[in-house]
Specification:
Low-confidence stretches: 1-21, 332-342
Number of strands: 12
GO cellular component, one term: cytosol
Distance between the termini: 29 Å
CATH topology of the largest domain: Rossmann fold
Oligomer: single chain
GO molecular function, one term: 5'-nucleotidase activity
Number of domains: 2
Strand content: 15-25%
Structural class: alpha/beta
Shape: globular
Strand order of the largest sheet: 5-4-1-6-7-12-11-8-9-10
Protein name: 5'-nucleotidase, cytosolic IAb
CATH superfamily of the largest domain: HAD superfamily/HAD-like
Pfam family, one: 5-nucleotidase
Order of helices and strands: HEHEHHEHEHEHEHEEHHHEHEHEHE
InterPro entries: 5-nucleotidase
Radius of gyration: 20 Å
Length: 347
């Protein structure tokens, strides 16, 4: 069903009503998504790469009234909207809501097709950032972005270097169905929620030394990783549901899915989260087993990992997985493996 006030995309009154309900950016949890992960723009991307910019523009204008199909971030954005609808029921005046910003390095000529698509799918996206070929990073900072999702690994790395939580999103072969009414977010631990300190020990000295190091430091919290702030933002909203007695019916659920083993190195991970005052709903310590099958059971809207091996394993089994190019693991990726051609169709 459609969420929130807009029932008819052509109804101007409901648009105005929606505009009034928009959270102010400083109180909102701002999620910036590129057009290329929100919608499926593969055909357009192909035209750009093989026929050039002018043919690409011509095609977009000719197909202006045809909406794009959903992309890998679509169900995640719908789940954010479902959480917003629940928050508004409980807290009419609150501005602590998710605010989705569409970011694209397209020129404005593709804007009409994007707006038509948003209306067609009844998405609540008022904020657009069309940079006409320029980097969006400055705008992301101005929006106080809590999370940036893109298909372009170069822009993602640029965002991470500026201290913005960011990840490269991949499209699974066949996307698993996910919940419409509960947002599920799964995180890897090291180099995602936590720093890569322990991973460095493992890479340099092997598993036994890693276990020794974790045992010796189990009461010393790990430093924070690039997505700690996003987990924190989710936790803040969860507490608003708990305050109304809805812990068991909370529309946000978080998961730690880590290759660590519970007995030998799980303690430090959990103690670190506790020291930050953060709760995670489910912690799964897989002791090196593949993550894909477990994620297939959880069915998260989004999963973050710093290692392409796990991202690919998750995507193969239908999970929308995102690569966080942060920390020591990135140095073993062959140079150029992650770099795709720049794209006009929304990063």
């Amino acid at each position: 069903g459609s969420l929130g006030p807009i029932k008819d995309p052509m109804n101007k009154t409901s648009y105005f009503y929606h505009f009034l309900l928009q959270p102010k950016p400083e109180n909102a949890i701002t999620i910036a998504v590129s057009a290329r992960v929100l919608f499926n723009m593969e055909k357009e991307q192909h035209i750009y790469e093989h026929q050039g910019m002018e043919e690409y523009i011509k095609y977009q204008v000719e197909h202006e009234t045809e909406p794009f199909n959903p992309g890998p971030a679509f169900s995640f954005v719908k789940a954010l909207e479902a959480v917003n609808a629940r928050l508004r029921e409980l807290y009419q005046e609150s501005e602590e809501l998710f605010d989705v910003v569409l970011v694209t390095n397209n020129h404005a000529y593709v804007g009409l097709r994007l707006i038509n698509t948003i209306n067609h799918h009844r998405l609540f996206i008022e904020r657009f950032c069309m940079t006409g070929g320029n980097s969006p990073i400055g705008y992301l900072k101005a929006y106080h972005t809590n999370l940036y999702l893109s298909a372009d690994p170069v822009k993602v790395r640029e965002a991470l270097e500026e201290g913005i939580a960011a990840a490269t999103m991949f499209t699974p072969e066949k996307m698993k169905e996910v919940s419409d009414n509960q947002l599920r977010v799964a995180f890897d631990g090291d180099a995602v929620l936590f720093s890569d300190e322990s991973e460095r020990i493992f890479k340099a000295h092997g598993l036994d030394k890693f276990f020794e190091h974790e045992k010796a430091h189990e009461n010393k919290p790990l430093d924070h990783g690039p997505l700690k702030g996003f987990l924190e933002a989710l936790g803040k909203l969860q507490k608003k549901f708990y305050a109304k007695g809805q812990r068991m019916d909370c529309p946000i659920r978080t998961y730690l899915v880590t290759a660590r083993s519970a007995a030998s190195s799980g303690t430090r991970a959990l103690k670190t989260l506790r020291s930050w005052g953060l709760e995670i709903d489910e912690a799964l310590f897989l002791a090196g087993a593949p993550k894909g099958p477990m994620l297939e059971k959880i069915r998260p809207h989004i999963f973050f990992d710093d290692q392409m091996f796990h991202v690919e394993g998750a995507a193969e089994l239908g999970t929308v997985a995102c690569h966080v190019p942060y920390g020591i693991a990135q140095r073993v990726i062959k140079k150029g493996f992650m770099d795709k051609d720049a794209s006009p169709s929304g990063q």
